[in-house]
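Data deposition worksheet. Section B asks for the primary sequence of the deposited chain exactly as it was used as input, without tags or linkers unless they were present during the calculation. Section C holds the resulting structure in token form. Section D is free text for depositor observations; keep each observation to a single sentence. Incomplete worksheets are returned to the depositor.
Section A, Depositor: J.P.
Section B:
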Amino acid sequence: IVRLGDGEALNFLGFTFRLVAKNGGYRRVIVRPMRKKRTEFLRSIAELLERNRFRPVEEVVQYLLNPRIRGWVDYFRQGNSGRDLSFVRWQIEKKIRKFASRQTPAKRSGRRWTTWTHDEIYGKWKLYSDYHVKHGDCVCPRVAYTLGVKTFGSAGCGKSASPVRGASRGNGTN
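Section C:
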């Protein structure tokens, strides 16, 4: 049993659920990706780039990298994951810049990793760029109600934090 009201966090299906108090006195459930899952994803991207370092950048980005990024981002774009998605975007862009610069090192008339422009990365290579949080499909109120937490006001995602009809409280009663 996890007591969100006592400051404990619940890690479930790759997300961390935490109850926080806001300035107005009401409490709400914060839903973010687990740091462990974010780190595992970025390590898998680094390994993928290392295994394919002799392939052209456009091919690696479009056919190997983009499907993985799109899947991870689509799964974790719920709740309050804006900071995490921004961090992932920054890290992936940094890894792609390094990957591209290693293909033609500066010693052999190549470019340094900082000289790749935004237009080349997102325009020419077509790196995935939709890292926005979806607020319409947020599960915050339903999770809060299912866990037996009473919240007031907005759930932080545009939905009301009122109870959801038909959802079980976990103790067998509706």
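Section D:
DSSP finds five helices and three strands in the chain.
The beta strands are 9-12, 15-21, 27-33.
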